[in-house]
Sequence to fold (463 residues):
Amino acid sequence: MMEIGLHLEQTQKLIITPELRQALEILQLSSMDLVDFTDQALMENPLLEAKEGGERNGEQQDEPNRIDWQSFISKSRDYYEEKGLPREVREEGPHESMVSHQLTLEEYLTAQWKFAASDPEIGAIGEYLIGNMNPSGYLAITVEQAAADLAKSQEKVEQALKLLQTMDPPGVCARSLRECLILQVVRQPLEKRTKAAMETLINHYLQEVGRGNLVKVAKEMELTPAQVQKLVDRLRRLNPKPGVGFADSEETVYVIPDVQVERDGEGFRIILNEGHVPQLTINDTYAKVLLQHSDAEKDQAAKSFVEAKLNQAAWLLRCLEQRRSTIYKVTEALLKYQVEFFRKGVSALRPLTMRQIADEVGVHESTVSRTAANKYIQTPHGVFEFKFFFTPGLESVTQGTVSTESIREIIKGIIKNEEPEKPFTDQQIADQLGQRGIKVARRTVAKYREELGIRSTALRRRY
Fold:
């Protein structure tokens, strides 16, 4: 028989509060996103203000009715914790002031076209063609389509196009890769025979050159493989995309490292790069509101509003401080595990997992993942993503576990030192890795080589 009754039961549940969700979001923000976030917080919360660089904390200590915000925060939110981390913050000026305007390809060609086209009709056609080029510098429409759009003859459009193709950069306004390369060859100071051979190579043998069949090309052109090799070398110095050296319509995004690791004598030091992020503090403008002791309804409403905003500001400051602390600790752990990388470079990179860093720092693995997201670290060997340091590894007989990034660097070094006339095959590279105690299959070498952008054996061979 069922009975109805009341029973008390104590359980534990993990509830993600809005404050905790905000803390997690702040932790995984990139450096530039953090700037936008703090700017938004400054607009929404009147108790927050950006600390000016010239302000001194002790300038207004004698002001009456001044509130000790740190004491208030400590009591209400347990905000300030003991901080034993040595931290150095680098202050930098705004990066926007150092970025100069770059000309787009359209602007560059339009400036030249004003002096090149004397006929107003040709000038109008040329302006239309300039506006119909893709970012690589190729004409994106046909002559027939341009003539129909402008209600002009195809001869006039061809005339304007030929004039455009004489402008800088060489190869611009071409309709195909072959035409782009031919336009560049025509303008080079080459012997007549060499120029003719280059044009023949471009018009008839581009695919064979791409496959590395230089012996076949030499036989059909009645040249020696060494002569064809010289022609191919000249061909590779041409620019297949003459428009890529100019700014595009989208704004260039610059990477600002969140952390810098610099040499300091025999060791290293960690610098949090926060000079471009507004340093938030709490505004004292509302001090009198909190100090009022009147029981009037309007004063109570004002004090309730200020206290709510103050609690939001206190939590935000705590989240920002926790973010700094976590990034510093994770970087410190990375420096401990990957110290050989910071000393020698990518070839000394060790296999590393986020769990190892999480155990070292004393946080959950997901916290390390959020810390590494969208963040960069500047090292003596360049700027890298945090996630770059977390790589799997392969077993080595002599060196223990070797990271895949380190293996890629070794492959790059082997290929760099090979004889150009007899480049190593993927199997020979795998054999050399085996001699170093690293057992790697040939197909794995081919995969890493392709990821490095290194061509196959046939395409690397020189005659």
